[in-house]
Amino acid sequence: MGEIACGYPSAGASGESDDGLTGILSLAVRHVAWARASPQSVRCGTLGSHSRPFPQPVQPSQRAFSQPTTTSELPHHTLKDCIQRVSMSQLVFHIAKRCCRLHCRPGQHSMKNLSRPTVPQTASSSRHIFTSSATLAHPTTSLRSSAPQRRVSAVASHLSSGASKRMISTTTPVNAEDASGAYVQQSEVRHQKMQSARIFLLNRPKALNSLNLSMIRNIVPQLQQWKESNLCKVIVMTNADDCRAFCSGGDVKTVVKLASSKDPTDAAQALTFFQEEYSLNHTLGTLTKPFVSIMNGITMGGGVGLSVHAPFRIATENTLFAMPETKIGLFPDVGGSFFLPRLDGELGTYLGLTGQQLKGEEVFMAGIATHYIPSDRLPALMTRLAELETDELEVINMVLEEFVADTDLQRWKNWTLGGDIGAAIDRCFKYNNLEEILRALEKENSEWATNTLATLQKMSPLSLKITLEQLRRGRKKDFMDCFRMEYNLVANFLQKSDFAEGVNAIFGKRDPVWGIPWERRNEITDAIVKGYFQLPSNVGNNIPQLKFANGLTYWDYPHRTMSGLPTISDIKRVVHGTSGTSMEAVA
Hints:
Blueprint: E1 3-5, H1 21-37, H2 80-86, H3 89-100, E2 105-106, E3 109-110, H4 126-130, H5 147-159, E4 168-169, E5 189-194, E6 197-202, H6 213-228, E7 234-239, E8 245-247, H7 252-259, H8 264-285, E9 291-295, E10 298-300, H9 302-307, E11 312-315, E12 320-322, H10 336-339, H11 347-354, E13 358-359, H12 361-365, E14 371-372, H13 378-386, H14 393-401, H15 409-413, H16 419-428, H17 434-444, H18 447-456, H19 461-474, H20 479-493, H21 499-508, H22 526-531, H23 568-576, H24 582-586
Parallel strand pairs: 6-7, 7-9, 8-10, 9-11, 10-12, 11-14
Antiparallel strand pairs: 1-2, 1-3, 4-5, 5-6, 12-13
């Protein structure tokens, strides 16, 4: 892999054993002691005003969030001879690297028997953290073999496998070349291990990481395995470095094609996608293992279902959030009937009906993200999460707080949907009838109200009326029941709705022609709307049953008060001294 220079301290008079484990271990221990004793051996970096004390359960000695110490600051000592004799490079590297964040660079000494992941040169490059699929090769045993050497090689072999690897990719690398020289197909979801962290990397860049059935079936079994692992302390889901989308939505083009087929098997396959997607969404929302979603890009539709139910939801300056389903003749599913009504006031109703986009810090201000962290801090955050030796949610929350950006008070006062516009949203979207909402918007007589009316008139009238009813029902349903309700809805939408027309219009880059146009929206009666909330009578036994991985449910997110912003209902309960859950306050 090229030549490596390692900044080890000189062995000095004590030397090291020629063929035993003792000399190698003593060298590593001396290196650690020397590094801790030297004030210049480990640089304690900060993140400006965002640096906070580390959580007590972890108690690290010193951490370098900025550039690690360069090898020019350390005395040089090559282990070339030792490595060639006993193949112990992995042991020394891992002990020293873990204890004092040893920094190695290309340059001087050849270590041909050593193959290890490249250490990031800066803490601001996310490519090193998220796209590395390097693995550690097993060191080659020297020809001058002895019993101690074989024991040492066995230890090194163990250390170079499994949990010892700093970053391990368990799926096929992107554009990896096999032994024959041919390029193999990239994995759409990559699984990576980073010490105690386990990472899902969504990796379908050409399709903006749109979620398909194969991706769901890739995630589910690995998620169950990591949930049961004692070595895994936190699960992270984000997008690969070369993807500008976290997940832009479900693969609706394929779903519509299957649903439009005359083959009953294809139609059932379309519904199977939603059945398995909703089951995955529920599993993510009820994980007993800490789960962090990093929405570092476009996050819409199906991508919202992969992220919004996590106890920790990180937005960056690259985040673009929306639930635009009414624009394609659908409804905000993937648990939208649960999380949207639980946002402040009528913000969720407004977002669900209009599909309004939120950018960057706005996602945090809306109460959707729990933390706003600039993307250049993500590599350091990942390193910090990987070092945790506990799965306590409070500790993970404290770690995330170390990296959050300061929110300027002026930006908070003037954000897109705050202030006067926020009050207008509450006034206009509080009604349970679409016509009343439209009349309230007309009375506002403002630029915002005019633009909102124009936006609603582009949406499917059928989708708007069903979505409004869905959100009102979702306020009074628990987490699991919301998915059951949405499953009934989608079973009907695949048979009779504007869904296929909306999708075909988007991909055909044309204006949709809705089944019932805007001018005749009064033809969509309450009876028609309510009929969509029952399973269609003609599906028979062909419909896949909605099954969940567990029976857990709740009326409000159980970790809501631990992270993110308090809602207006929370503040009112404190000010007025009222009691009860937020569900009671909303209902």
